[in-house]
Design goal:
By secondary structure, the chain is of the alpha+beta class. The chain is 34% helix and 26% strand. The strands form two sheets. The protein has an eight-stranded mixed sheet, sandwiched between helices. Strands 1, 2, 3, 4 and 5 form a five-stranded antiparallel sheet that branches. α4 packs antiparallel against α11 and α10 (210-228) packs antiparallel against α11 (242-254). It is elongated. It starts with 19 loop residues before the first helix and ends in a 10-residue tail after the last strand.
C-alpha cells in the first residue's frame, strides 16, 4: 500500500488563549488534550457517523500516533464543534515547511470529520472554525484525500478554500450480483486456479483475531519483502522498523473489535498471496497486498481476491474497497474510479510566525 513517510519537525504548540477559534464556538485541543479526547470522547462521534471508515476511528489514530507520529514529528490537534470534530496534525509538508494536515496523513486512504448529527450542521460549524484555525496558528491547511460528499468536503466549499482532485479510488459493490458473477466466472482465472490446484492443496483463510493475525504477520512481511525486493518503485517497505511497528499497532488497536482482516491463499500450507485490510460495518478496505513472485504467471493475488469476493459477500460485506490508486489490476474489478479531494487554505495576508 502506497503509504508514504514525510519526516520533519512540527512546530511547538502554544497555549490556547482568546484565539480566533473559540470565537466561532469551536474548541481546539492540542497535544495531550487531543490525545486524551481520542482516547475517550472521539469514539462516540465516530460510531454515530454513518459514512465513516476505519481511518476515522480512534483506534486507527492511536496506532498511528504511537508508531508513526514520533518518527514524522507530527503533533495531534483536534477541532471540536457541537456533535462533530476533525482530527488534524501539525507536521512538515513536502517542502519541509510546517502546515496543518489530516491526522495520519498520508497513511490513511480517506480523510474526513466525524459527526454524530446532521452532516450539514456539522459542516456549517466546521468551515468557519477551520478558517479561524489557520488565522490563529499562522499555518496553511492541506486536506489531502478528503472523502467526496463527506463532512469535510461540505465544510470547505467556501471561496477561501482551493479544491482539486486527489487520488483515484475504486470499490467493488458486492451487492451487484451480476457484476460479482462476471468477475468470478472469468475463464482466465478459473484456468489458473485449476493449474495452481495441480501443484498442491489450495486453501483460503481469513484471520480476524488479534493473536492469530500477529502470528501470521511475519509471513506477511516476508512475502511482501520478497515481492518488492530490489524494486525502485517500492513505497514504504517493511524493514525500517516504522512500517513494521505501524502494522503491529494497527492490529493491537483494531483487531480486538474485529476491525482487521488478514486473508491468505495457501498452497500446501504455504502462503502464496496475502491481503491485509480493515472492516467496519459492511465495508472492507484493502490496505496492503502481496504475492509470491515465483508464481506470477498463475496470478495468486487475483485468485485470492476472487475468493475474498465470494467469501466476504457471504459474510455480510457490501463494499470491497480497493482504495487509492488506479492500478491496472484494479481496472479488472471496478467499473469506474472516483477521486478523493485535495482541499487547501492559505494563511490570509502576509506570512506569519507559526503558532
Amino acid at each position: 500500500h502506497p503509504a508514504q513517510q514525510r519526516p520533519g519537525t512540527a512546530p511547538p504548540a502554544r497555549p490556547r488563549g482568546r484565539g480566533d477559534v473559540t470565537t466561532t464556538g469551536a474548541e481546539r485541543l492540542d497535544g495531550g488534550a487531543a490525545r486524551a479526547f481520542l482516547g475517550a470522547g472521539w469514539e462516540a462521534l465516530w460510531a454515530g457517523s454513518p459514512a465513516a471508515t476505519t481511518f476515522q476511528s480512534a483506534g486507527w489514530y492511536r496506532a498511528w500516533l504511537a508508531a508513526v507520529a514520533p518518527h514524522e514529528g507530527a503533533e495531534p490537534l483536534v477541532l471540536r464543534v457541537p456533535h462533530a470534530a476533525v482530527a488534524l496534525q501539525r507536521c512538515a509538508g513536502a517542502d519541509g515547511a510546517p502546515q496543518l494536515a489530516p491526522l495520519s496523513w498520508p497513511w490513511a486512504d480517506y480523510h474526513d470529520a466525524v459527526a454524530a448529527g446532521p452532516a450539514d450542521e456539522a459542516a456549517a460549524a466546521l468551515g468557519p472554525a477551520l478558517e479561524a484555525l489557520v488565522q490563529e496558528t499562522g499555518l496553511p491547511l492541506l486536506l489531502d484525500d478528503v472523502v467526496p460528499g463527506g463532512v469535510l468536503d461540505r465544510a470547505t466549499r467556501g471561496d477561501a478554500f482551493h479544491r482539486a482532485p486527489a487520488s483515484p479510488t475504486g470499490a467493488i459493490d458486492l451487492g451487484d450480483a451480476a457484476h460479482v458473477r462476471a468477475i468470478l466466472s472469468r475463464p482466465e482465472h478459473l484456468l489458473k486456479r485449476r493449474r495452481l490446484e495441480r501443484r498442491g492443496a489450495v486453501d483460503c483463510r481469513h484471520h480476524t483475531g488479534r493473536d492469530e493475525i500477529l502470528h501470521r504477520m511475519p509471513d506477511f512481511i516476508a512475502l511482501h519483502t520478497r515481492q518488492w525486493e530490489g524494486r525502485a518503485d517500492a513505497v514504504a517497505p517493511f524493514g525500517d522498523g516504522v512500517v513494521d511497528g505501524a502494522f503491529t499497532a494497527m492490529v493491537e488497536e483494531l483487531a480486538p473489535a474485529g476491525g482487521v482482516v488478514l486473508s491468505e491463499l495457501l498452497l500446501d500450507g504455504r502462503p502464496v498471496a496475502m491481503y491485509f485490510g480493515f472492516r467496519h460495518r459492511d465495508w472492507f478496505g484493502g490496505y496492503r497486498t502481496c504475492y509470491d513472485p515465483e508464481l506470477f504467471r498463475l496470478s495468486p493475488g487475483h485468485l485470492l481476491l476472487h475468493q475474498m469476493i465470494a467469501d466476504f459477500a457471504a459474510r455480510g460485506v457490501r463494499t470491497l474497497d480497493l482504495m487509492r490508486g488506479s492500478y491496472a489490476y484494479k481496472r479488472e474489478y471496478v467499473p469506474s474510479f472516483r477521486h478523493n479531494l485535495r482541499i487547501s487554505l492559505a494563511v490570509p495576508g502576509a506570512s506569519r510566525q507559526a503558532a
